[in-house]
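We treat protein structure as text, and this decision shapes the records that our systems exchange. Because each token names a local backbone shape, the row as a whole describes the fold. An entry from our holdings is shown next, in its original layout:
>
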Amino acid sequence: MATKKLLFLLCSAMLAGCAQHHLTQADKARDRMAYADAACQYEKALHRLNDRDAALRAADSYQRLNQQAKAADWYAYAQRIAPLDGEDAMRYGRALQSLGRIGEAAAQFERVLADQPEDPVVRELGLAIADRESFYVDTTLFTIAPLHIERITSAFSAVPYGDGILFAAERSTGGKENPWNGGAFLDLCTAKAPEGIMAGAAIALPGQVNGRFHDGPAALSADGRTMYFTRSDYYKFRLNKDDNSTSHLMLYKAEKQADGSWGQVSSFAYNGYDFSAGHAALNADGSRLYYISDMPGGQGGTDIYVCERTSEGWSLPRNLGPGINTAANEMFPVLFGDTMYFASNGHRTLGGLDIFRTVWTDVEWSRPENLNYPINTPFDDFALFPLVGGREGYLSSNRGGADGIYRFTANEPTLLLNISVFDEADGSPLAGAEVRLLEPTNPNPLSLFTNDDGKVTFPLTVEKLYEVLASKDGAFTESRTVSTKGQRISRPYSEEFRMKQVVVDKPIVIENIYYDYDRWDIRPDAALELDRIARLFIDNPNLSFELGSHTDSRASDTYNLVLSDARANSAVDYLVRKGVPADRITARGYGERKLVNHCSDEVECDEEGHQANRRTEFKVTRILPMISERK
């Protein structure tokens, strides 16, 4: 019995020692950013140890490898031992969000927010989850397809290069092993890129731009002769590291040589040894260089900075400020005219990095706009580069498990105008009414007739101002204006017409026409209603009208007649100024001669009763034959 017990203790000690060995190896691997090796060693150690801190380090290692499911498993393991908080809860929430486990992610973000109620990044994450459906408001705006490039395991940040593309890639053959993930270090490569999704093989860019460690991504000047590219900070065969054993990235410049290779490599003036700089972008004329850095004094994480070209080189970098940068990471800026595209995980996102758009307004950058699904997903989406015209281009994403380049095509929003026409008298649908759709740039209106339900539908296009006219024999023609200016997502428009029958000499009250006491000039609230009446008169060029004004019974008959006549003429003058032909409209003041109730002289009435008599009406006085159709 004692022997068995001794054997058991010896085995336990050996297993514990073995576990401790794996844990030590894992920590060493993690310190040198060999996360693939670290994750494997943590797994082996945690099969024999119940160590919360080791589980958190394993989760972090898997997260850096973009293995979110594994990361979430180890965060959950750690949470079972003790609740997560702070940055650990934040990272767990991000992993859950990327996996679509939205409720669980929200719980983690709420926990962080309870401890850090002023944290804007956590607040944005929580709001993104609460309003998650808004990211899917129109999923038809873009078509996304992966670009297949031979001889690579991952690639990102494609930009046009000759008749192909230039990009950063982890090639599947050759090169030194990258301890981070066990693959190769990044190189700058080119490939043929036809319009389809099949590209050629990745070919390393010739010259001095590809070294022993990471090189890429890159930005090119408009003439294609100058390149700014990101590179690991290294000297000969060794990565340089700061006091925390962290190796940073630096920005470099290269010039295209006569033989097509790249040389004359020089370091960017504002690189640093204890922070990173990279992911450059140039505006069209090369007068401004944008890049990212986590240098001290920023908003937090990596921020976007800009330098202005001067006679002496680049000016000091200027942070784009809190409108663009957050306490998390802003990365991969791309300039396209006055628009900048960039990736962020600090603004409201679907999860991971999302692509945002902002426009320069001569004073500042506009509020960043999330491009939504399918441009963005719960994974990392970044480095959107539009081609000429902006309707097509490239983006990068790890939605497929590894970084890859995708083609996008922008589609026009689906815009429909649904028209309903009713008979105002009884509210029934009006079949056979003609509805015409006009636009200023098209001399030929589109004409359709309503069905038995009184309905008709027109397709619309973006950035147009339409006029819609509904007409029916014996009824007033009416029009509406429909604008699709600035409309970026698919949506239906709806207009409802309630058509009035034309009856000669039948008064029609114009609602909401009021005058100040003892005055006849047109008030702003009356002008709004008269604008509508002007449109009705103009839409019916074969009709002539009388506009009549009535007063209540207070004051003398003569005074009321003069006052009502002045009001009627004031209203008619206003309508003529709005475009109603003067020969088709007359003014008449009726004073108190046509009261609509009992509130006559010497009859006591409340203000509501008198108000009913103070009215403005119009009526059709003549119907002329139609000379021509409205064009």
